[in-house]
Structure formats: C-alpha cells, structure tokens
Amino acid sequence: MDSNINRVCEGFRVIEDILRFKYNELNLTKRLKVSRHRIRTSLYQLDKTLLHHRDVQSDIGLIVDQDLNLEEFKSIESIILGNFKRVQEGLRTLEEIAKSLNRFEENTLFKEVRYVTYNLEREIIFYIEEKPLLTLPSLYGITYLKGSRGRSNIDIVEEFIKADLKLIQYREKDLSQKEKLKECIKIRELTSKNNVTFIVNDDIDIALLVDADGVHIGQDDLPINRVRKLIGKNKIIGVSTHSPSQAKKAELDGADYIGVGPIFPTKTKVNVCKAVGLDYLKWVEKNISIPFVAIGGIKEANIDSVLSQGAKSVAIVSELTLSNDISSKVKAVIRKIEEKSYNEV
Ligand SMILES: Cc1ncc(COP(=O)(O)OP(=O)(O)O)c(N)n1
Ligand SMILES: Cc1ncsc1CCOP(=O)(O)O
Ligand SMILES: [Mg+2]
C-alpha cells in the first residue's frame, strides 16, 4: 500500500514541478499539492503496522517504474499525461486495497482524489495547449551595430524587414539603456506593423517596456524560471547553450527555444566560448524537442554543413549586417535552407 502511495505522490510531484517551474502556474500547482498531501497523510491514519510490511527490495513497483518507456516521454504533454495515468492507476489500486481491508474512509478518500485528478488533467492539458508551440523561421536575424557599415540598428531592422526576415533579435552591447529603449520602441512599431517576431537580447526590462515578443538570455543571466515569472507564459524565452547538459536543462526549465553555438569561430561576440562544432548540433537535433537555432561563424559559404546536421533555423549575424545588399543576401541564404528542407521531403 505504501509503495502505491509513493507512486501517486511522485506522479503528482512531477506534474506540480512542470506547472510551477515551466509555466509558473500557481493555482493549478496548489491544487495538485492539496491532493498530494491528502494522499500522503492518509498513510499516517492507516495502521502503523502496515509499515512493518514494507519490503523495498522485492517491491514489484520498482520493476514497473524501471520499465517506464522514456522514449514515450517526448513532450511536456506526454510527461503530464503519463504521470496522471500513474497517479490514477495508483489511486485505483489503493481504493481496492483499502476496500479489502475494510478501510472505507480511505477507500472514499482515494476515490474522491481520483475523480479530482480527471478534472485537473483536463484543465492542465487545456492550459498547456493554449500556448502554441514556437516555430523558428529558417533565418534568424540579429542586429550588430559595430558591423553595420555605419548604418543604424533601425536601418538594419528596416532592411531585414524589407528582405522578409520573420524574426529579429535586438542585440546591442554599446548603447546606453536609454538609447536602447528608444530604438526598441521604434523596432516594436516596425515589427508589429510587418508581422515580424521581435526578441530583445539580455534586457528583460526593455523587452517588457516595449512589449517585445520575447527575450534571449545567456548562461550567466537570470534563471529561466525567474525570467518566466517576469515576462509571463505567453512570451518567448530563448537560451544560449554550448553543451548537451545546458541544452537539457534549458528544455526542462521551460525555454521556448535554444541557441546552439558558436558552431564555428566568430569575431562578432567578445568573450565568446570556444567553437562547439557540428557534433553538438547533431546531438541537439537528436535529443532536444524544443526548436533550436544554430549560431556562430555561419555564412552562406558554410551553411550546408550546418543544415546537414539537422539545423532548420540558422542565425547569421555579421555576414548579413556587413552586406551592402542585405535583401539579396537574405534571399540567397533562405533559398539554400529551403532547398535543403525541400530535398528532404
Ligand atoms: C540566437 C542566439 N543564440 C545565442 C546568443 C548569445 O547569447 P549570450 O550567450 O547571452 O551572449 P550575448 O549575445 O548576450 O553576447 C544570442 N544572442 N542569440
Ligand atoms: C551572439 C553570438 N552568440 C554566439 S556566436 C554569436 C555571434 C555570431 O555572429 P556571426 O554570425 O557574425 O559569427
Ligand atoms: Mg546575453
């Protein structure tokens, strides 16, 4: 009996953690927690003698849990559904055991909580579905004032929009907060008018002030769950990653997409880490289920090697901002990416 109680509580705990840390959803988290506590404390009301029957080594529950097919747990939704199933099955078993022991009070409690979980399951799945999955465009544009041949960030954003880029990140390391805010207000206006996604690098406060679509943060910035708390569940959080463990953590912590790089050496970013190479990109393609964008030293001339490792979205910074004809460059690169995905079908 107590191994089933553990299984039910563990299932609740997994769902609670997802809602709390990934979505920062306190109401649903609290309701799950109340049910978990009701089940957990039910054990204390049962005969203490039951605990003497605890036999962890030969507990069949351990074998069942080891058999859980991790391959099935690909999306957040399937993790939640899998854990609700675990909770409901556990509760059903507890109901039966309590009944056979003539513990009618506990039998009613387990049944009641099981019915509560059906409603919670529906509400939680609705809640998650409300947030559409992000699709990154094939080419991800980023501003780079120093490498823009004297043009302003606004000039570059206008060129990007004319060239039909669908996502633009404002990345500015040299202007004051006041100047950045002024530029971002203008960029929000331009991007909204043209249906372009607008991401602000580093500055969560500016992103909030101008109602940008999201933020891009690095490994040394605020933790993802704190940023989520600030910007809410409907905004995009992108996170830079340089290793498999960082990528897994970002995915679990609720990032909407990850940056993967620098793939090749780059001079655009100061204090950049060593190039991570194409193997890490391949690893991400195989092991990560949120969208990812390859970045760092990527040019029209070497993009094929990046695409052949499975990248569907690529960020090219200096080669675009240094170009005298941004529109032609963007079109040539997008054509290459789209040809590659067309050939894969
Ligand atoms: C799409 C994308 N990927 C990676 C980065 C780099 O972010 P970070 O590591 O925080 O470094 P800075 O850009 O802030 O210098 C990015 N900006 N965009
Ligand atoms: C912001 C950033 N993060 C990792 S590499 C990089 C800059 C990439 O610039 P470029 O495309 O010019 O190499
Ligand atoms: Mg940063």
UniProtKB/TrEMBL annotation:
GO process terms (BP): thiamine biosynthetic process; thiamine diphosphate biosynthetic process
Binding-site list for 2-[(2R,5Z)-2-carboxy-4-methylthiazol-5(2H)-ylidene]ethyl phosphate: T266, K267, T268, G297, V317, S318
Protein name: Thiamine-phosphate synthase
Gene3D superfamilies in UniProt: Aldolase class I (3.20.20.70)
Sequence ranges assigned to domain ThiD2 in this UniProt record: 1-122
SUPFAM superfamilies according to UniProt: Thiamin phosphate synthase
One GO MF term attached to the UniProt entry: magnesium ion binding
EC number assigned by the record: 2.5.1.3
NCBIfam families: thiE (TIGR00693)
Thiamine phosphate synthase/TenI domain span: 140-319
Role this protein plays: Condenses 4-methyl-5-(beta-hydroxyethyl)thiazole monophosphate (THZ-P) and 2-methyl-4-amino-5-hydroxymethyl pyrimidine pyrophosphate (HMP-PP) to form thiamine monophosphate (TMP).
Binding locations of Mg(2+): D202, D221
Keyword Magnesium: yes
The entry's keywords: Magnesium, Metal-binding, Thiamine biosynthesis, Transferase
Segments traversing the membrane: none
Annotated residues for binding of 4-amino-2-methyl-5-(diphosphooxymethyl)pyrimidine: Q169, Y170, R171, E172, K173, N201, S240, K269
